[in-house]
Amino acid sequence: MIPVCKRLCAMAIKTVMMEVGGDKVAIMTINNPPVNSLSNAVHNGLYKCFKEAQERNDIKAIVITGADGKFCGGADIRNFQKKQNAEDESEKSIIAPRNLFNNVIEACEKPVVAAIEGFALGGGLELAMVCHARVASEGTELGLPELQLGIIPGLGGTQRLPRLIGLDKALDMLLTSRSISAETGREYGLVDVVTHSSDVLETSRRQALAMVHPRKSWLIALHRMDKVGNSDNFLKTLTNARAKAKRKFRNVRYPFVCLDVVEEGLCKGGEIGTELETKACRALVNTFEARALMHIFFSQRSTSKVFYASTPGLKARAVKNVAVVGCGLMGSGIAATLVAHNIPVLVKDISSTVLENGLKMIKENLEGLVKKGKMTELQARDALALVKTTESYKGFESLDLVVESVHEDLPLKQRIFHELESVCSINCILASNTSALKIAAIGAKLSFQDRMAGTHFFSPPHVMQLLEIVHADQTSAQTVMDLLSLAKTLNKVPLIVKDVPGFAANRLFVPYLMFSTFLVDLGLDPYHIDAVIKDFGMPMGPFRVADFTGIRTFQLVSQTFLVNSPKSFHKSPLIELLLKDGREGIVAKKGFYNYGNVNHGEEAAELKRYLEASRQIAQVRGEYNNVENLLDTDIIEMIFFGVANEACKVIKDDAVTGPTALDVASVFGMGFPSYRGGIIFWADSKGPVYILNRLKEWWREYGSIYKPSSLLEKCAAMNTPLGRIVSRPPSKL
Length: 733
Ligand SMILES: C[C@H](O)CC(=O)SCCNC(=O)CCNC(=O)[C@H](O)C(C)(C)COP(=O)(O)OP(=O)(O)OC[C@H]1O[C@@H](n2cnc3c(N)ncnc32)[C@H](O)[C@@H]1OP(=O)(O)O
Known about the structure:
49% of the residues lie in helices and 12% in strands. By secondary structure, it is of the alpha/beta class. Strand 16 and strand 17 form a beta hairpin. The site of 3-hydroxybutanoyl-coenzyme A has 25 residues, from helix 2, strand 6, helix 4 and helix 12.
């Protein structure tokens, strides 16, 4: 250990601290909890510390690190939001610390090493890249996720990353926002040394001192070109990347701005590149997409945080052993999700044949994750080894959680939970994956209902990010807390919802399909609707998604609406006509589309017959009956204003904590484009008054399915955005 002079630098400031060791290495520690983000105070702190370090003869080298084992989570996103909301136009520019990065840190005459632990993301990785070497602890997360926020890196990331790891790999990281581990970073040349976290600081010191003497020269990332090749090569790579981006990104500009800036910098030099990058990043911060994506970033985090805040002192218990009862499509997907995150699963079903089939589906799900690059083949094999199957309740006594996933049959579910209560320990959480029944009804006969909850996964569970945690009246805070913690382990976005029919996400999803089928009964072509909605930004149109989730499932979940609010529901005859002929969707290889042997699906010529029959029965009339009058924007509004109207009813019913929860539900549960900020955020961009007027128009014409909700009327009357409706803590749900 090197003796450290405990004297803090004369200019000691709270957010960046400097300690100088007996070895003459200055350690600068960023201390800005919770993620050591780069606030203005951090920039100023670094400026001051660097100035002092440059001047002092007793400092030979510098190491930058972050407090609490976290290097830096990037620029302070709250700061961007403040600028977006600034009234004064001049306030909208972001102060760029480009000078600090390029001219102070990178140009420093004393070697600077980044000692990285935990994560270096966005501006955090950009800071690490201006250092002259990087030492990272095992498993550290490195990435430039700015595109996920609707902006591009603004502190040289678009320029230095390609120069350090090559253009192909850099573009992949930039355009996917995917992080890499320190180990992969070492392989790519982004990290110089990977070591154990207890050794990061010492190794960084040694690395820095080695660079003081001419034993190891240091390279300035911005000046390098050795990894990007000649202009023919990099221009070709960029052309391919643009073509790929065109297929992947719809309706947004920021990925293309990113590619342009990379190209400019490679053609005109890194200095010009960083200047253009800063300007482009500043301009993007104020776009609707950046507002929307930053809103989603914070909303996604707030849905569970609010619960922790309302139950101080409670600590989550780890869920280490789980059983899934029922291994159909959903059960096997849930089991795959659990084992993919190293949680052993006991799968129970009624016969060895069903179990064999379930195991096959679990294997296929894991293979799907391998194909998507979410896990390696070896990890998938290890995960599969964590699955055990059983036809009995043997082994259930030592479980932490059971997820029931049998079909929607109340007496059957009640019987299963009764049996579970007699075999599971008192601490085991009993959860149902029902989407149509009330949790309280399923657990009505249990002696201890506090450990009963809903875990509503979305299809396919190993892919969809949302997990609704259904909180019945009797469910304990401890149970919800444990499930929230499990959601984090599974990398899911948890949403606490009340035990009301349809919970939250299906209250949006079912009307989405319902308004789409209504338009078909009005005379519109379903394939045209699918195309318009896909262009709007949904991953697939409503009819294709109905095929994927199963048309019978749609019919089943619709029952809740038909029972609870029949006047707001258009029951299209089309659904029953299709089901009568076995057109159940992809499981039957035919639904709205025909699937042959592939999952892509082709338009079905014979669908016309069903459409005509359905229209004949439905007899929907209206001014727009000549459907050619309908513009694509009308189609979008007639579907999504209907969904937004239902969202207002969900808020009114107190089914969720507030409007933000529905933005999260729509983005992560039904694929609403995140760059539109979720259903409520998007609706607010149109304004409650405009939506109300349009709904009234359709209400007059087509009847009560378009009847405006009282909450929408209220917001329109006060001209208040729907997003401003006050949220309530989940304990009050
Ligand atoms: C100019 C530059 O190029 C532009 C940029 O750098 S833009 C920023 C780029 N950086 C990012 O996108 C990283 C965003 N953050 C993350 O991915 C994750 O928070 C993380 C991996 C750093 C930590 O994850 P985890 O430990 O699970 O904590 P998480 O719950 O996500 O965050 C903890 C808190 O920090 C906040 N936070 C995280 N990153 C933040 C950031 N960059 N700015 C402001 N707040 C941030 C979260 O909102 C949360 O706040 P809360 O407790 O009040 O809800």
